[in-house]
Amino acid sequence: MAAVLSYRGRQVTETEVEFLRAWITAHPQASRRVLSQQVCTAWNWVQPNGRPRDMVCRGLMLLLHRAGHLTLPPVRRVPPNPLAHRLAPAVAEIDDTPVCGSLSELGPLDFRQVRRTDDEPRFNSLMRTHHYLGYTQPVGEQLKFLISAGTRPVAAFAWSSAPRHLGPRDRFLGWSAEVRRANIRFVAYNSRFLILPWVAVPHLASHLLGRMVRMLPEEWERVYSHPVYLAETFVDRTRWRGTCYRAANWVCVGETTGRGKNDQTHRANRSRKDVLVYPLTKRFRAQLSGVA
Questions:
Q1: Does pTM surpass 0.90?
Q2: Which fold has domain 109-288?
């Protein structure tokens, strides 16, 4: 049966639309939230960690409602948007005495995943204060790492869900749009990498990158109950050459178009960036194609 529309990788058929119409009619007192939760249960529509995809389901039903395929009950309440009123991270007090010398003199380095811990505000503050892009709250799956030498932070990594559409990466992997939609969750995006400005240790950046990618898959699976097979990042060529990534064996697979993810004009409106990737397993192509 031909699909009525495609939404977030799901082909929605007329039979499913009829099911939704009948379900809404049979539950006239149910709110949109309750309807989405019920439909997820009926369709067994769950995330890899077993939780229902009720937000995605609600978006699908709203799309069908706006297209005239069904009629949702009126909105009962508009919940506050915490992102619209999020306070900037407080400035963390930190020892900024210069850190110099060699890697061996720096001593043992401690990598800690601080997402949803008491150290997350400190991470956010360091990114906001010292990273040239500042701090923005990631969406989707995300991990945050603080790296310390003794008791002093020296660096930080932010990881999040990968962009859905990225031509150089997609051509490098050779996957179709359908496979990409199904498997994009197995790609991790390095959105921030910060070495604090008073830290000047030769080869530290590539050393940290090498250790980070070795521990990333296990930590991602521990938190989100699914693996990642590829890491990716952008390097703004107007500012950096990406030397530390290349020294850590990341591979440049192309460049962005300079149009951004919300482009409506098909014209470049920002600097082009190199797209670098790092395979996290030997069989990453087969695993990302779903044939592993």
A1: no
A2: Aminopeptidase (3.40.630)
